Amino acid sequence: MRFIFIFFLFVSGWAVAQKPVPELWGTRVHDDAQVLKHETVEALEAQLKAYEDSTSNQIAILTVSSLDGETIEEYSLRVAEKWKLGQQDKDNGVLLLIAVDDHKMRIEVGHGLEGVLTDALCNRIIRNEMAPAFRRADFDGGVTAAITAITKGIGGEYAANDTSELGELSTTARILIGLGIYAFLGIFAFFGLFIKGGWGWFMYLFLTPFFSIFPAFVFPGHLWYVPGVSYLIGFPIIKWLVNQTSWGKKLAKKFEEGGGSGSGGWSSGSSWGSGSSSSWSSSGSSFSGGGGSFGGGGSSGSW
User: Fold this and answer.
1) In the chain, which end has fewer C-beta atoms inside a 10 angstrom radius, N or C?
2) Integer Rg of the chain from CA
3) Residues 6 or more apart from 59 whose CB is under 8 A from it?
4) Of all helices (H) and strands (E), which one includes residue 294?
């Protein structure tokens, strides 16, 4: 009896500690944090109603001041479960949740829309449409842009320019990223120096675009051409030295003796990408009742 009593105390205390979920009351836009203008709320309400009438997809918005210590993923799923957004036979509901004081947001996607409104696409909408506007305290613009992007994303019409994120990086960060990528490419270039026959030169030609074009997106100013020119000139010279000089031949021989497995090491590359593809599918439980169900699909972010 003591154990049962303590257990019920724990469960009831946990339930009380949870942040309450507001009632839906037939309204699509719930600005509980009061960060949106009245005109914006009315415009979004009309836009979402027209979108639901034409597609049957139901999108709702909820802004809260704080999550009160609860994770945004847990709270968002509880809201979506209670509101049952979307049609029961289609599970085509979407919830846009924003916790203002916690600087967090999430797009919760119903089962039926996870194939078109993928986790990756939701993440891009958060990064490109919401986060930059929220950093300027422009919640009206950020929420409006996010809703437009979500509807376009469902229709397969959303395209975001992710290069803006690279442009916001500092010069030091861009150089460090570039050096990391070139260190990776340098490993393949190193193998190309010691591979005999046409395969070594094939590796040279294959890597040329990476060394020649990519620097323009990483290195600032007029220095972008330095890595490409260095690679174009340096690789043939070093490869000639390896094949013609005594020390180069000794080094190549040691390389062959040390890597006697030959080209077998390259065949393992075919297994890349086969392990993570299943991570995109949702394995969460289904929430049914009077409307759509959710299983954790979507993405979270912060600003």
Assistant:
1) N
2) 27
3) 28, 48, 51, 52, 85, 93, 94, 95, 96, 147, 150, 151
4) strand 294-302
